[in-house]
């Protein structure tokens, strides 16, 4: 559906370009009128390009949702190639998302269940929570304070040293969290907000 709409918008863009560039001008008045006309066409083209780009984003999001899962207003996608925390987050951003950040117990359980299904046998995954800037002050990938936590208290997490500043969700510990060394290699889950 999105692909069809994209094609329609592209055809419209081409028609407008043709209209803009193929009409001859004769008098000064005609030239001035044509200038106004061209501005009008330019702004229409800009609007159409914006639509093309938003359709492209929708299409990319649909692909992510189909490959991963849709839960409430988010899509999650597990990436199985282990990376350092920062590389993992950069990779999610490059795909139009961020590292997944569960905001409550429901989201955390959904994330845990999806992680378990998508990468069976994997122990833990990076999520978008860290206290890199100030020890003990956990923030999300936008540097906003996090209010929901699910620490694995049975393993005395977070150990809270400066050595371990990035948070992983452990499937082995039923979705509980632990702080880990940011440079350790882990699989990760990206999240994409559905508009
Ligand atoms: Ca720890």
TrEMBL record:
Signal peptide: 1-22
Keyword Transferase: no
Single GO biological process annotation from the record: ossification
InterPro entries on file: C-type_lectin-like (IPR001304), C-type_lectin-like/link_sf (IPR016186), C-type_lectin_CS (IPR018378), CLec_Tetranectin-domain (IPR051663), CTDL_fold (IPR016187)
GO cellular component term, pick one: extracellular space
Keywords per UniProt: Disulfide bond, Lectin, Signal
Residue ranges of every copy of the C-type lectin domain listed in the record: 71-191
GO molecular function list: carbohydrate binding
UniProt keyword annotation of Disulfide bond present: yes
CDD domains given in the database record: CLECT_tetranectin_like
Gene3D superfamilies according to UniProt: Mannose-Binding Protein A, subunit A (3.10.100.10)
Protein's name according to its UniProt entry: C-type lectin domain-containing protein
